[in-house]
Amino acid sequence: MSKQGKIKNGNNKAKHTKLLNQKKNKIREAKALNKQRLKTLITKSNLFKQYCSCGSDNLYGDCCAVAHKNVELVTTAEQLMRSRYTAYVLGDVEYLMKSHHSSTCPIKEKNEILKWTKSVKWLKLEVLNINKGGVSDMEGSVEFKAHFEDNGVAELIHENSKFNRENNHWVYLGEL
Ligand SMILES: [Zn+2]
């Protein structure tokens, strides 16, 4: 074998090793991605079988998950209020925007809301009073207390929220 041939061979070998490593890395990445996908699926299916965070005594899959999948299926203002609380618990900021009246929707604060809600520990929702907001109503209000912990400090949001309908479904308008 000539000297040049040896160098060429060596180069080819290096190229081959590089390609092989690239291929290995790709397989490793694909495996990691699959693992992550599976983990998300399992977490989601576990979540569906857990009691809903809104405190309704129903499983999440039969409760706020229905609203989170399709907000148009929400029939009352109370349901929308509960599903919004659960969306805060889950960090589902898209749903928070979708279930907000367009005139008051804090779309610019979306990322801040997500950051904040993920930084606190949601504890409990108490629905205190419901005024209208039924299946055949066009508006209504729900008074609630949402308990959470912020950096180990117990906090509380006590609000009487106003709801009405927009685009054929219930939406949150703001504080009464
Ligand atoms: Zn629920």
Tags for this model:
single chain; 176 residues; alpha+beta; four-stranded antiparallel sheet; 4 strands; 26% strand; elongated; binds zinc ion
Description:
The chain is α+β, with helices and mostly antiparallel strands and 176 residues long. A four-stranded antiparallel sheet has the order 1-2-3-4. It is elongated. The model has no long low-confidence stretch (mean pLDDT 93). Bound molecules: zinc ion. Zinc ion binds next to helix 3.
Structural topology:
Elements: H1 3-48, H2 64-69, H3 77-90, H4 93-98, H5 110-119, E1 121-132, E2 139-150, E3 153-166, E4 169-175
Antiparallel strand pairs: 1-2, 2-3, 3-4
This protein binds zinc ion (ZN).
Zinc ion (ZN) is lined by residues 52, 54, 56, 63-64, 82, 86.
Give a quick precis of the structure.
The chain is of the alpha+beta class and 176 residues long.
SS class: alpha+beta
Helices and strands, in N-to-C order?
HHHHHEEEE
Q: Main sheet: which strands, in order across?
A: 1-2-3-4
State the total count of DSSP E strands.
4
Largest sheet: 4 strands, antiparallel
Global Rg: 25 Å
Strand content: 25-35%
**Overall morphology:** elongated
Helix content: 40-55%
Let me know the average pLDDT. 93
Q: Give the names of the bound compounds.
A: zinc ion
Low-confidence stretches: none
Number of contiguous helices: 5
Cα distance, first to last residue? 89 Å
